[in-house]
Amino acid sequence: xxxxxxxxFGNFEAVEIPGQPGGQTVLMLHGYGADAMDLAPLGQMLxxxxxxxxxxxxxxxxxxLGLGQMGRAWFEIPASRLQQMMMGQPxxxxxxxxxxxxxxxxxxxxxxxxxxxxxxxxxLAGFSQGAMIATELAMHLSVSPLGLCLLSSTCVNRPVxxxxxxxxxxxKYFQSHGVSDPVLPIEGARKLDRLLQDAGWVGGLxxxxxxxxxxxxxLESLGEFLISL
Length: 229
Description:
Layout: E1 5-9, E2 12-17, E3 25-29, H1 36-39, H2 42-45, E4 53-57, E5 61-66, E6 69-73, H3 79-86, H4 101-114, E7 122-127, H5 129-138, E8 147-151, H6 158-165, E9 172-178, H7 186-198, E10 202-208, H8 216-228
Parallel strand pairs: 3-4, 3-7, 7-8, 8-9, 9-10
Antiparallel strand pairs: 1-2, 2-4, 5-6
């Protein structure tokens, strides 16, 4: 089994599974309220190209989860959107540029450059809020990433993303979403998929019976995507 180790990656705390020089790098970003260890086991489970390096960043912001426990986040979710979810209403971001999202993506981009990660051998991945950051980042790197993996994501800041995505024609992506997701409804994922398709990106949305999660079937499909890059 590939060894995990706690590291400092620029200004970020991270979990790393080392690869080999010249190999691909998968940068994976967790969801709201989780941390790097939430997704780190995927680096030991997923099929990938031999020599792949895995980096799982910790979001820099701590948020209370209740009962004295804390989680991490990449940017603040407006209280009005959190209230929507708590009331059982669909939580949508397509009309919103969440405060801090663009700045956080720029900070990660700067860190990747400082750490000398080759964007041409970089695969960006994320779950939920982490996938939103990964998408924003993919649209602004100096060189298009090798691939983009979006797990339980949604359409954010739709007019801006639709415009910026057109500058990345041919970008390869993998997207998955549960049809019964109570946090980010499936329609937001479908809108994101249509946006990327209309911009000339190459990939598609894999829907599954389930909620805000990553089932085994999706892990297998994601592994196939990774080794195809």
